[in-house]
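Section 5.1 Outputs to date
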Amino acid sequence: MIRDAQFYDFIAQGLASLGYVEGGRASLQMYLDDMFAEKWNAEKTYAQMGFPLDPDIRLNPTYEQIEAVIRPYTMAAYVDYDSDGPSKSVDGATIATGEINIFKHEVYLDRKKIREKIALVDMLGGMRSDIVDAVMNLFFTSVDSLIGGNFNTVQFQRHQIVGNEGKLVIDGTNNPYGLPFEIDFEVPAKNKNTSTWYYKDAGGNVVQVSGIGKGVNPITVAQKIVENAEENDAMPAGHWECSKQTKRDLLAMPFFRELFAVATRPDINKDALRLSWSYTQDDEVIWNYIQQRIGRIEVIDKRGAVEFIDPRTRKAAYHNLQAFREGVLVYVPDGDIGTVQSGKLVAIDDGSTRTAYFDDGRTMIREVRNGEKMTIKVKSESQTVCVPNATRWFYYLNVMGDAPTEPTYTYTKVTPEAGDNPSEKGWYVQSDGGFILSTDTEVQEGTDYYTRSEA
């Protein structure tokens, strides 16, 4: 017997059994509002990262970057009796506008299980509650993974923009199956500072550069950036941000530990002993000391998980990406530093689809049934972007440099003259496939000598 599509509509049966019915029809909208609104609260989540939801969902999906304005209590103007006073400005200046890019992903409910359930329903001649429950469990997991993935996408945007000098870069690394694009929200060049405190060797170990603590004092460098922001740019109260890896890097530097030891144990008067003692202290003690000297540091520990097909195994694989760039300290204002802006999403349903909206219309969830392939797919769309409005108060301190590279040399054969001293002339001889300085004080017959120069 051939059944129609309604007969195999597991989701409709499941929604109805859970009481999600509106106007006599199963309601996916009621299900989303009830099951996910508390767990995935966009308004609360995004406000905590300083980018609250923009209440305006745009019909024309373009973002607008409006510069934040701190309004002092400006003095009134002196005018004559019959003249009006000057009008106060009420809006910030629009810095830039652009298209809001759309991001999508989808999940197939377990195809093997769905086909087994279809066969079982066909054999039984109707739905059974345990069959419906099993499919609804798959459905819940699928919707949850899509909405959670959208939240992580927006959070990745925020941390990349703040940690990457105001730039959102979407490329083959973080978007392997999508379109690349870049948005530069334009941090002033004067706000970008470099003071190299360390680099990583080939083994990934932190190596503090020479001169730290002598010619360069990291505490003073950071304090001057804060002072400049407050005194010259009228920046409100702020804090530093860095990645969790950068925190580890700074704690691996001897400078901060020695400084802490000097401040707390002045009775230890030998450098080596002070450093040894500092390593007996908990990392958080040292970290709190650094914050006492330069200001609060918020550690960003968010990673973006990217799914791709491994060409070797031809199976899905995952890799994690640091959202916040390593080796940089960023000084930003406290509170809101931008907004999350979205475009309006629209869809047309037919007999094989069911559509609902989440986050007041910022996310679209669609259930798509394919009778030919006997599959149920859940799709998600969102047209959302984080737009900073305080980039003029984003200050960057790049503290990690590149590891020094070993120079390459060329060796040129020389023709010795009588009385030449190879050792004094700094000539080289071949040894074990390479070259070493010659120790000969006289030219040896049958030995070739070379001069060395950088390539």
